Amino acid sequence: MTDTKGKFLLDAVYEWEANFPDRVYMTQPVGNGNVTDYTWAETMSEARRMAAHLRSLALPTNSHIALLSKNCAHFVMCDLAIWMAGHATIALYPTLNADTIAYILEHSESRLIFIGKLDDWDEIKVGIPDGLEKIALPLAPKTDYAHWDDIITRYNPITDNPSPPGDQLALMCYTSGSTGRPKGVMHTFASASAPTQAAVGEFGITDKDRVLSYLPLAHVMERAVVECGSFFAGTHIYFAENLDTFLQDLRRADATLFLSVPRLWLKFQLGVFQKFPEKRLQRLLSIPIVRGIVRRKVLEGLGLDHVRLAGSGSAPIPAELIEWYDKLGLHLLEGYGMSEDFAYSHMSTPALRRAGYVGVPCNGVETRISEDGEIQIKSPGDMLGYYKAPDLTAECYTSDGFFRTGDRGDYSADGLLRITGRLKEIFKTSKGKYVAPAPIENLLNADSHIELSCVSGPGRPASYATVQLAEELKDKLDQESFRQQLTPKLEALLTSVNERVEEYEKVQFLAVVREDWDTANDFLTPTLKIKRNVVESAYSPFLDKWYASGSKVIWPD
Question: Is 356 a residue whose pLDDT tops 60?
Fold first, then answer.
């Protein structure tokens, strides 16, 4: 293992290149079950050649270069090439629509764009200006753009090891836009390096670890933990090919580290229940003599049997779901961070964790709870600011330099943080009581019949919830017998949830909606969070009828 303590991103990479050139760093699926391995030397040879090309373009120093791609080995190589050429990366979610892509490219003043592995290319490409220079990566859709492989054959690798200063812009992460237009969060080499090094040290991540990269690398959580983490720890990164091959890809990686989001942890659970009925599995796990065998079989089926660190982030995860994985012997470490602090704020540890809490402050992080209950932090990962928005940047910080997260929370006696909702999401009923929707949604989402929920009701006598059924149940929505069978179960869920909240927080009814909430129709952000304003607007015309029905469970036509 090489010593990368106190170094910035590129400095750490140069150490691996020099000391372990022949070690495999990345494994990329290329179709039909085949893969291509890239050693540190091969990775850096391609990146250094592309850096030479970027230098030849004579762009202004620290120009913004866009990168639109699903996760792949050349995403990482692009970052390295852009940085070595003296520029900054603007990574875009591969699921964005053309309008948002066009907005980000214009807002960020990107000078060039790399096009990589993508779905729905015909819909996406109309958002890319004709006059913007484009380079296609090896797994890109077929285009007439200049191709990465052709370009790097024309250049010798740069031979110097540029090391940008810590205060230089390295990348911009555009927020997922859950409350409006995405904001460009600026991170320097220092703010992207210091928290990553600290996290690698805290969790003992090394070059012996293996990780599957499948959450969007454009998102700060995957960027920080998987990509930047690998620069300091030397972790072997495996990439997923597509959803159909996910389990095969995960088993190939034989992952020791696995990072996911609550929605996917729930999908894994529902997949287990399809093979092991919930009550039967619960009974088997309660029998000491067979418990270990059942645990191993379930985790092997998920491809997680060698995972030593399992994390969940990006959104709140129901406490019941963490407790369920605990019974399997897989202890999820929930974390809490934001684009603005490079995902470095709070993290559960094997020694300090509790279902319903997101952990303790990370090393070097200062935190406090304001008088109105807001979580405020100072982190080594704090952003440089929002691009082109100095006034908005100033509004997000207190006079003494703490970042206003917009989240409400409180600490337990042993220092664990519990998130109790978003300040701006809290709404007032017609009875004058304030309701925080997120904790109630967590209770609903913990049920195996529910995939997503949205609790709302401003100005109404009581709150209500629109819910999406679990994926395997949606095709039965038109069956009257199915509705009759499921209605009492959902009524029981509603009763159970209402017994666990305050009187003024009780949900009057559940409306089981038909529309799929996904990124394509703008109901979800690229990180699979609900866009609350979109969901509320879609169903507001039906609310008077739903409230007047008096039903606990509503099945809209």
Answer: yes
